[in-house]
Amino acid sequence: MMHQTSSKLLRMTDDDRPYTRDFKDLFATLMVSLPLTAHRVRFSRYEHTFTTEEAITNLGSLKFSQSNRMPDPRDTSRIVTTTTTTTFSMAREMARNTLGRMLEARFIESVDGRTDFSSRNSVWQLTPKGMHILARFCQRNGIHQRHVNELLDSPRNIMQLVILERDPETDAISHDQATIDVIFRRFAGDTGPNLKSMSTASDSDSMNDYATGLVGVKMQRSRRADKDAPYVFTGKAAFDWLMDCSTTVAKREVFDLANLFIQSGFIEPVGDERHGSSNGAAPRFAASKTQLYAVTQKGMRVAGWITSPNGTVNGEATVAQRAPQGAVRDSNVNRMTIIIRDPALRLLFREYLRETHCEENLAFYVEVKAFLNEYQRAKRGSSPPRPDVIRETLASAYSLYNAFLAPGSPCELNIDHNLRNALAGRMTRAVGEDEQMIQSLDEVAVLFDQAQNSVFKLMASDSVPKFSREPKYASILRERNLESMLAATSIS
C-alpha cells in the first residue's frame, strides 16, 4: 500500500483570509465528517443539519482520506492501493471563527435566526451554495457516503454557481474588464431582467430567492419611467445575488465587484447618490434595502438585452473553407492557449465544459499548473529542499493522481495508454526518503507535465471548436474578439 500523509496548514492571503480553494476543501471535509441528521427547532424538524458543538468538535481534528485500488503494473496479480490522507486541526476559538467565515461566505445558514456560534446547540444547514461546493468536492474525490448523498439528492441542491477565476498567487478574484463584463452579464440576467413585484423585489432576506443561480438579480421597473434606465434593483438584492450565486467568500469581495460595476458604467445609483460625493469621487456601493441602482444603457448592452454591433467570430466551418486542415488544428491550439490565459474566456469555457460534462479536463489542467508551480517553489526554496515541503508536494501529486488519473478514479481522464501506464508505474512505486523522495518528485513532475499537455491537446481538438460554435457564447466571443486575438497570436 502506498500511503501519503499531509497535515494541511491553511494558506492565508495578505488580508488574513484563507485561500479560497483550501477554505472550500476544509468546509467540504467538515460537512462530510458530520452526521448531518435531523434536528428539532421549536416545532419544526430540519433534515441534514448540524449543531455548533458538532462542528467545533469535528474541526478540532478533521481527517480526509482518498484511496484508489489498482493492479500493480509490474505484477497484475497484486493489488496496489494508493491513499492520501489530509488532516486539519484547530483550537475551539479558531474553529468558531472558521465557522463564522463559512457563515459569511453563505456556505451555511442558521435555521433559527442565529448570527453567531455562541450557543452550543444552535442548528445550522447548508445553503444551496454550500451544497454546490460540497457536490463538486465529492465528485472530484469520489465520495459516496449515504448521508452526504441524501443531502445532495435533496430538492434544495439546484444551485449553479458562477465560478469566479482567481489569481493563483494572491487568491484575488480576476477583475480585468472582460471578466467583469462576463460576471455582470450573469448578475443582470443574460436572458433578460428578473422582474419582481415591488414588494418582493425591494425587500427580502431569503436565501432562496436565487436558489438556482440561473436568474439575474431581482429587479423592478423604474417608477420614474426612465427610458435610459428602466430597470432598478436594491443594493441589498445586489449583495445577496453576488454572495449567493457566485464563489465569493467574503463581503469585501462583493463590495469590490459591485463597485467595479459602478466604475464600469453598468449601473448607477438612483437619487441623491447618482452624481457621487461632494468631492467628485465616484459613488460607492451600499448594500442597502433603500438604495436603488439602475442598469444603464451600457449595462443593458453588456448584459445582451439590447443589440451591440461588434466584431464577429468566425465559426470553424468558415475557417475550414479558407485554410487547410492543419491550420485549423493549429488555430484551435492557439484558441485554447488564449482561453487558458484569459480569465473571462476561461470562466465561460469552464461553464461550457460543465454543461457538457467535461469540466474535469480544465480542472485537471489548472490543478496541475498549481502543482507544478508548487513543485518549482519547493525546489527553489532551499538546497536541498526540506523533506517536509517535498512530502507535502508529493501528497498533492497523489491527490491529483487519485482524483484524475488512477484507473477508476472519480474524474478519470482520457489520456494516452502509454502515459497512463507510466504514471501508474511511478505512482505505485515506493517513495524513498530524502534524496530518493526528491528524485521521485522530479519524475512525477515530468509525467504530470506530459499529462497536462495531453489534456490541453484534447480540449483544443474536441471542446474548443464546439465552444466556439455554441450560440449561447457567440455574442460574448464576438465582443471579446477571440478571432482578432487569434490572428495576433498567429502573427506573433
Automatic annotation (TrEMBL):
Residues 213-297 form the DEP domain. CDD domains: DEP_RGS7-like (cd04450), RGS_FLBA (cd08708). Keywords: Signal transduction inhibitor. Coiled coil: none annotated. GO terms for biological process: intracellular signal transduction; negative regulation of signal transduction. InterPro entries: DEP_dom, RGS, RGS1/SST2-like_Fungal-DR, RGS_sf, RGS_subdomain_2, WH-like_DNA-bd_sf, WH_DNA-bd_sf. SMART domains: DEP, RGS. Residues 335-477 form the RGS domain. Gene3D superfamilies: Regulator of G-protein Signalling 4, domain 2, Winged helix-like DNA-binding domain superfamily/Winged helix DNA-binding domain. It comes from the Eukaryota. The keyword Ribosomal protein does not apply. PANTHER family: DOUBLE HIT, ISOFORM B, REGULATOR OF G PROTEIN SIGNALING. This is RGS domain-containing protein.
